[in-house]
Amino acid sequence: MLGLQKRSVASALLATYLLQLAACHHIAQVETSQVTLPTAEEVVGITTIDGLSTRFDGPARIDNDSLYGSVKHHPYAIAMSEVQRLWFKRSAPGLTILAIIGVTVGVAVIGLAIALATKQSCPFVYSYDGEKYVFDAEPYGGAITQGLERDDYGELEHLRAVNGQYRLLVSNEVPETQMTNLMELMVVDHPAGMRVVADERGGLHTVGQLLPPTTAVDQNGHNLQPWLAATDQSIWEPLPVADGTGLRDQIVMTFPKPRDATSAKLVVNAGTGLWGSYMIRSLLQLRGREVGKWYDAVDGNPESADSVRAWNLREELYALKIDVAERDGWNPGALMPGGGPFITEDRVIPLDLSDVSGDSVRIRIRPPRGFWALNSFNLDYSPDQPLRADTLRPVQARDVRQGDVLPSLLASDDRYYAMPNTGDRAQLVFAAPPARPGTERTILLHSRGYYRLHLTPTGDPDTTMLQRLADVPGAAAEFSAQQFSRRLVGAQTSH
C-alpha cells in the first residue's frame, strides 16, 4: 500500500487541535508592531494515501473519523484513514499573515505539531507580496546550538517590491531562543524562462529541462514514482513502524542519461519530516540536567561539533547520503541536507557521473522512517549559464520590543539578533533595485544563525541510551520508533 499505514483517527482528538476557523478577510500593509502572528488554522486541502491532492472551496471539518468539505461546489467526504496529509491555512486577524503548512495525519493523531508549539526549529520568515505577509522561508533548521551554526539559502517566491522596498517579517513562533547572525538578499536578474536554484553552500545554478525518474521503487517494490516526480502536494513521508521493524526505507530511482554525460545536477525538494523535527527535543532530553554541559562542549570545541555532525551523517537523521550506481557498484555520490519541516526548498546537488556507464543513472537513498519528507527528485544535464547576483543588506530592521536591531544582521560576526520569546518578531526593509529590462528576477534569502530549545532539564542523563546511540549504528532510528510507539499508544488509550 502506498502512503502511510491506515489508521483510525479519533475525531474528538483532531477537533481539539485542528478546527480553529479564521475570521475576516481584509488585507492591508501594517507596521511590525501591528502585525499579529498566525492564530487560527483551517483545513483547506488533503493528500490521500494514493497521492491524490484535493483543495476545498472553504474550510473542511472532521467528524466521526471522516472529513467533510466542498470541492467545486459539490459535497465531498472521505474517511480519515484514506488521508495521508492535511493542508492548513494559518492566518491572523485581518489576514496580514498567511501560512500554508502540511501535516501528516499519523503525526496529528498523536497530538503533535498542529499548534506549532511542538515544532522544533528555526524562525519563520514571511515575505510581503504587496497585500499580505506570506510564509516563505524556514532557515537554518537543525542548528540547535552555536557550535552548529550554519548558513542557509532559500528562494523567496512571494517577495515583491512595493514603493521601491522589499519587506520581510521574521518571527519566533515556538518555545526556543532564536539567534540570527545575518540576513541578506541575493537578487538575480536572468533571462525570462530560466530557473535559478541554489546549492547547499549558496552556489547558484541555472536549471534547464528537468528529467523525473523513470522508475522509483522502495525495498518492497512499491512504485514511488508518482510521489517523487514533481514538486507538489504528494510528499512521501512514512512514519516509524510502531513495532520497531523496518527502521529505514531503501529507495532506488532510475533516470535517463545521455551516454556522454559525465556530470549532472540533481534538483531535490526534500527536508526534515515533522516527526524528525520533534525528535530533536527527545534526543536532547536524554541528557537530563547535563544538557548544558553538552551545549558548552559543542560550542567551545570544534572537534565536539564535528563529532555531532559525523554522528548525524552516520545515522542520516538530518543529512542524507545519496549513493550512485557506478561500474563497481554503489558508491557515495553526494549529501542531501535537511531543512524545514514546513517549507522545503529546491536544492541543486551536483553529481559526478564519470564512472557511470550506459544510458541511465541509478541513485539510492536510505532514509530513516519519520525523519524525512521527500517531494521530488529530478536530473538536469544543462550547463550552468553565467549569473550575476546583487547582494542586498537590510536598510532597516526593527523589533517590536528591542527597537533597532539592524547592526546585528548586517554581517556574520559576534553580534546576533536574539528572539528569546514566542511572539518576538522584527520587520526588515531592503532597498529594491530596479528591474533590468527583458529579465525575470529570482530572490534568495541568505541567512545564518542557530537556536536553542527551551528545555526544563531534570534528572540524571540516560547514560545507557546515550552510549547506545553513540556506539550502535541505527540506534537513533530504533529509539525514534520506540518513542513513536509510546505516543501512539498513549493517544489511542486516552480516547
Strand order of the largest sheet: 2-1-6-7-9-8-11-27-24-25
Low-confidence stretches: 1-34, 112-118
The total of beta strands comes to 28
Radius of gyration equals 22 Å
Tell me the fraction of residues in β-strands, as a range: 35-45%
Q: What count of helical segments does DSSP give?
A: 8
Helix content: 10-25%
**Coarse morphology:** globular
Whole-number average pLDDT?
86
Biggest sheet record = 10 strands, mixed
Q: What is the structural class?
A: alpha+beta
| Cα distance spanning the termini | 27 Å
Brief digest:
By secondary structure, the chain is an alpha+beta fold.
How does this structure look, described?
- With 495 residues, the protein is of the alpha+beta class.
- The protein has helices at residues 11-18, 105-108, 225-228, 274-285, 291-300, 302-315, 463-471, 475-493, and strands at residues 40-48, 53-55, 61-63, 66-71, 74-79, 83-91, 97-104, 124-128, 133-137, 150-155, 165-171, 176-191, 195-198, 204-207, 215-217, 251-256, 263-272, 319-326, 329-337, 346-352, 360-365, 372-380, 389-392, 396-399, 403-404, 417-419, 425-431, 439-453.
- It has a 10-stranded mixed beta sheet with strand order 2-1-6-7-9-8-11-27-24-25. Strands 10, 12, 23, 26 and 28 form a 5-stranded antiparallel beta sheet that branches.
- Strand 4 (66-71) and strand 5 form a beta hairpin.
- The radius of gyration is 22 Å and the shape is globular.
- It starts with 10 loop residues before the first helix and ends with a helix.
- The relative contact order is 0.19.
- Residues 1-34 and 112-118 have low confidence and may be disordered.
